[in-house]
Design a protein that fits this description.
Structural class: mainly alpha
CATH superfamily of the largest domain: RNA polymerase sigma factor, region 2, helix turn helix motif
Distance between the termini: 39 Å
Organism: Leifsonia aquatica
InterPro entries: RNA_pol_sigma-70-like (IPR039425), RNA_pol_sigma-70_dom (IPR014284), RNA_pol_sigma70_r2 (IPR007627), RNA_pol_sigma70_r4_t2 (IPR013249), RNA_pol_sigma_r2 (IPR013325), RNA_pol_sigma_r3/r4-like (IPR013324), WH-like_DNA-bd_sf (IPR036388)
Number of helices: 9
Number of domains: 2
Radius of gyration: 19 Å
Mean pLDDT: 79
CATH class of the largest domain: Mainly Alpha
Protein name: RNA polymerase sigma-70 factor (ECF subfamily)
CATH architecture of the largest domain: Orthogonal Bundle
Keywords: Sigma factor, Transcription, Transcription regulation
Family: Belongs to the sigma-70 factor family. ECF subfamily.
Oligomer: single chain
Length: 201
């Protein structure tokens, strides 16, 4: 029996898409932690992150005829699907938040502990970043996330999204400028805006 780590993603996916459950399970085990980390970084809840992982692999199975292996790896395509799942969840959360916001809020005792203030500051900045990115198109959000946050090479992102390299470069440039402007308006720190210039070619 071969070590499962020696079997390529291409071979495993060929078997999985033909109905071999064990091959699909190997791919799931190979990448589920990576997808979980990405999901948890946004949803900040273990159960919700696990739901995202399940949805990503469900989408992979449903769209198995469209799956793209990039440089021998299934991961770039899975990360792209993860972005779409998270965006859909974010839209649902925003709708729910608007309903909650319409309800009267109870008065709370102020808490002036330093750690609370620090957390609020971080949350405010994170909210500003997400708000800035939410104004981008779905494709721009994916490109920005894959290039800057996942640090994938532009060529890999192009292959994962099935678009030309030149399109990735131009959309990345426009997306960076849009986010930079919105972050400036929301008062985000220069540390994050500086990261917008770091891209792997």
């Amino acid at each position: 029996m071969h070590d499962t780590g020696e079997i390529s993603d291409s071979a495993l996916w060929l078997e999985a898409s033909s109905g071999t459950e064990r091959s699909f399970a190997i791919l799931f085990d190979r990448y589920r932690k990576r997808i979980f980390r990405k999901a948890y970084a946004q949803v900040r809840n273990v159960a919700d992150a696990e739901d995202v992982v399940a949805l990503v692999f469900l989408e992979a199975w449903r769209n198995r005829a469209k799956v793209r292996i990039v440089d021998g790896s299934l991961l770039p395509w899975l990360l792209t699907v993860t972005n779409f799942v998270l965006m859909n969840q974010a839209r649902t959360t925003r709708r729910y938040s608007r309903l909650i916001a319409a309800l009267p809020t109870p008065e709370r005792e102020p808490d002036h502990a330093d750690e609370v203030l620090e957390r609020l500051d971080r949350d405010t900045q994170l909210t500003a970043i997400r708000a800035a990115m939410s104004h981008l198109s779905t494709q721009e959000q994916s490109i920005l996330d894959l290039c800057l946050i996942e640090e994938l090479p532009i060529a890999t992102v192009a292959a994962a999204l099935d678009i030309p390299v030149g399109t990735v470069k131009s959309k990345l440039h426009r997306a960076r400028e849009k986010v930079r402007k919105r972050l400036t308006v929301h008062g985000a720190t220069p540390d994050f805006t500086a990261q917008l210039d770091g891209v792997h070619s």
